[in-house]
Here is the input.
Amino acid sequence: MPEILLAARNVTKQFPGVLANDKISAQLRPGRILALLGENGAGKSTLVNILFGMYRPDSGEVIIKDEVVDLHGPDDAISRGIGMVHQHFQLVPPMRVVENIVLGAEPSKRGLVDLAEARKRVVELSQRYGLEIDPDALVEDLPVGMQQRVEILKALYREADVLILDEPTGVLTPQEADHLLSVLRDLTETGLGIVFITHKLREVLAIADDIVVLRNGRVIGETTPADTNENGLAEMMVGRSVVLRVEKSAAEPTDVVLAVDELEVNDDRGQLAVDGLSFEVRAGEILGIAGVEGNGQRELVEAVTGLRQPLSGTMRINGEEVTNGSARDISKRGVAHIPEDREKHGVIAVYSLAENSVLNRYHRSPFSFRGILRRDVIDRHAEDVVEEFDVRTPSIAVTASSLSGGNKQKLIVGREFSDDIELLIAAQPTRGIDIGAIEFIHRRILEQRDKGAAVLLVSAELDEILGLSDRIAVLYDGKLMDVLDAQDADRERVGLLMAGITQ
Amino acid sequence: MTTRQKQMLYVGATLIVVIAWTFYTADGPQTTAVLAGTVRAATLLVLGAMCGMIGERSGVVNIGIEGQFLLSAFAAFTIASMTGSLFLGTVAGVGMGLIMGWMLAAMAVGLKVDQIIAGTVLNIAALGLTSFFYDRSRSLGMGKYTNIDLGPLADIPLVGTVFFSRPPLTYLTMVLLVVVHVALFRSVWGMRTRAIGEHPGAADTVGIDVLKLRYFNVTIAGGLAGLGGSYLALEAVGTFSRAMSGGRGFLALAVMIFGRRTPFGAYAAALFFGFTTALQNQFQLNSTFDIPPQFVGMLPFVVTIIVVALSGLIGSMRDPAALGQVYEKG
Here is the structure.
């Protein structure tokens, strides 16, 4: 058995404008789990893409099984025993599990796929590693946890000695995530090495043997779970001490602002995604919607903000029916929306910051007069937003596309928060942004609550829900499993509800 | 296929047989003519549909089939009349189809031009080139492909004449139906092809060269449309005339969609559309209705609109997920 399974030695990679990897070294030994920890943009993905042969390093070496190698593409890495489980699953939905697993390395006879043989090998593999799977199921019919299992089997089928997992728990319930961690632990028994990429501190502490923390493209430190804790890791990641949990006072809810009754909404494919939801959000409280992604959150948010026509049911804001109102009708009533997909619904990439800062009210006074935009007023407003919400930008004249994710998000929050808000709908408000910006946005959301806004917070990050919400509603398969008071909610309880289990 | 769909298929097939037989006993020659015309029209449509489905299964829309038909028909006719060999003409037609497929691939896959625009370029180029170079004085001295009887099969009443007493390219097309079906759904190539049309990123991560495979597929598919062009000029009509493809390349796309991008599904759809074409021909020949022939001639196209609209309403069909999208590595 080799001493080192996979390693980077002084790997440097420059992209236009950023030094993504700056002399990074890290190594993985057989039977070990190496966690790569870092914020978005710290250089984790670049490093992994180099190790998997997707990018070539400008300088430095990649070592596989004690040998310095020159990878020309993923095929090279795969043939040397590197398997990758991507964050966004690389599976073909309308194909069967067995077809997905063997794709690209199909057993064949005279050019025809030998499905019987493929099936046999897949079943054997799944038994050997204790990863039960129905080889004939269509991937699109499988829950995400199972799809991930297919991805892992896909790598094992190619006889991987190293598994690289990129943010593997993002789409799982806490219990599914725990199960995955134990599966990974079992896999290392056979001598397999695992590289685990994440920004979740708890998981790193739970599973890693070695931890490498990256920041701004550099290795900031190496440690082991025994030598550190969550705060220590967070500090290494960010470079200063951080508050992981925002302080907040008890909520003082008053009148009902948003009332949703028996709401039904279809998804893009015409399937029922929101199935008879009823809930209320009061002024001065945060209602958190927990749930694994794809359980109707997107459709719910789109319906409530007027972006999607509900099938049936009613929605009222401050007692007035808005069920079939347009996005503008709803926004006029003092509703702010931080959309889930900031690139698609949050900013217009080719517009300037100034233009983006008034997307929700450019048509109103004082930003326009008789249909003509007043640039000076807009610019002044944009300067204020940039200042107050700490948007890091060279100027308000640059396009939104030049901003980092965190700064885009701060711009959106700044725009949405510049009027008095009756109702705030925040969907995944901190997805993919750095801890500093997360902290900032969390504070601002709480500030709105304390000023008397009703807040509907939708997030796939359970920590965010638990940290901010006053009440927690758990969504599963388009239905509300339960609504809990924040003090009664813990990871375990919410996690089970997220999986659709009620005791 | 679900049980319900199967039942519907059996019921439909039985109905067709019963109706055809009833008409045959009432008026043999007319029925035979209409059904033979159905197969004749269907052959061209299904060749175009197979060209389209190989492209679309790989994620590339081909709306240039009309142009591929036309220019291939021109090439086939010109070479056949120059050399006096129908075979060489056919080969030239297929070759021209391959060249046009390659051009589409070069634009849509290589240069990442919008696929609809790339296809439109082919259509316009084909119409312009064939109109410019068309030489009225040429003709096929030796005549077009003639029927070959398949032994005793050809003696079966009605069915024999309709299916087993046909010219060679029609038989070749029937063989190709099986070949393309097996290739798409049983072979390694087919599995990879379907994968790059649904999720090119997934294919890429397991080491399949998405762009190369799309290039190859669109080119090869062009050969099928090229065969369609040869068929049109050398077997169905026996001459070349300006814009002779007459919108059938577009009709082939409707056939492909209606046939769910499967060869046999497309053939069933092609027979249906072919039937409307044949019926329309027969109406015009007999002056069945006292309305201007232009309106009767619209029949296949009106039916296309209705059928495509209806199938859209049923909504049971799903396009390959990556259809029409440029693939960028990353």
In short: The longest strand of chain A covers residues 18-28. The two ends of chain A are 47 Å apart (CA to CA).
